[in-house]
Design goal:
binds zinc ion, 215 residues, single chain, aldehyde-lyase activity, L-fuculose-1-phosphate Aldolase, metal-binding, EC 4.1.1.104, zinc, 7 helices
């Protein structure tokens, strides 16, 4: 990847970070974004950085082993991204947020841990699909990385219990859009809870999955 492309990607990470922050999908210094580079390394948002005010040159660049090459120290949650990339060679970007409605769903009793949100809309099925719940672990616990790794091969998005979603995509845009779709569908799910909503049928979901395969 040329230096020019690298700079452009840094700017796009900052642009999407600001967009997510400005709309309240992330707050404080929580949330992180990463993008896979052609040389096998990654760009990753720095530790303690606010996604609303990222300085592109300070975004961390890591080599294929996860060592810092330039920029600030990467997010302490980089292991979540690495766990996901390790199982998903087709994924080029990952977004992890503590977005309110998704976190709310992750705290609810009685949700299906294999599929936290039912298929309420076609776009949710197309962009997210089945969303498994990863049991709660303390931040930084390496067992959390192992738990994500166990699910990431089959799922492009997972929901960390009492924490938030980790979402992979085949491009930075795709990962951001899938994260937004997840957050909005979590909001719908909460609005409809207890009202026995009509969901898409198994047949309708199968039809979407055949027509619009996710990566
Ligand atoms: Zn987190």
């Amino acid at each position: 990847m040329s230096m020019h492309d690298d700079n452009r990607l840094r700017e796009r990470i900052a642009m999407f970070g600001k967009s997510l922050f400005d709309r309240g999908l992330t707050m404080g210094s929580s949330g992180n974004i990463s993008v896979r580079l052609d040389d096998g390394g990654w760009l990753m948002t720095p530790t303690n950085a606010c996604l609303g005010r990222l300085d592109p040159p300070r975004i961390s660049r890591l080599d294929g082993e996860g060592r810092l090459l330039d920029g600030d120290k990467p997010t302490k949650e980089s292991f979540l991204h690495m766990a996901m990339y390790g199982e998903r060679p087709q994924s080029e970007a990952i977004v992890h947020l503590h977005s309110t409605h998704s976190v709310a769903v992750s705290c609810l009793p009685g949700i299906d841990p294999c599929d936290c949100i039912p298929p309420l809309t076609a776009y949710y099925v197309m962009r997210v699909g089945k969303l498994p719940l990863v049991p709660y672990h303390m931040p930084g616990d390496s067992a959390l990385g192992d738990a994500v790794k166990g699910l990431a091969g089959k799922h492009s998005a997972v929901l960390l219990a009492n924490h938030g979603p980790v979402v992979a995509g085949k491009s930075l845009e795709a990962a951001v859009y899938a994260t937004e779709e997840l957050e909005e569908t979590a909001k719908l799910f909460l609005l409809l809870r207890g009202q026995n909503p009509r969901c898409l049928s198994d047949e309708q979901v199968a039809e979407l999955e055949a027509r619009f395969p996710r990566d």
